[in-house]
Amino acid sequence: MSLSSAQCRAARALLEWSQDDLSSASKVAKATIANFEAGKRAPYERTLQDMKQALEVGGVIFIPENGGGAGVRLAKRATASIDTNETQTVQYEEHLTNDAPPGAGG
After folding, report:
1. What digits encode the pLDDT tens for the residues 78-105?
2. Cα separation, 27 vs 50, whole angstroms
3. Locate the HTH cro/C1-type domain: which residues (predicted)?
């Protein structure tokens, strides 16, 4: 599936990316992006692939034409239910007291 100018604009909007941001992420000149989005010129297929890949890495999913029109959406972000920073040791107060009977080696 190729990238349309409308999908490119919509994907940038979802990510809150400027044309400069997409240019940096895709290594495509800002002028190329601006001309493409304005419908002034069609970039090479490889350039479109680079832009699309950068947007996908940013978190966009491209929706193919399926009778309702091609589109974009944000990927569902994985969320942790607890803080999983494994570099910190957490000690809870109830674990700081020795509740084992005397001589239990605990």
Report:
1. 554 555 555 555 555 555 566 666 666 6
2. 8
3. 9-62
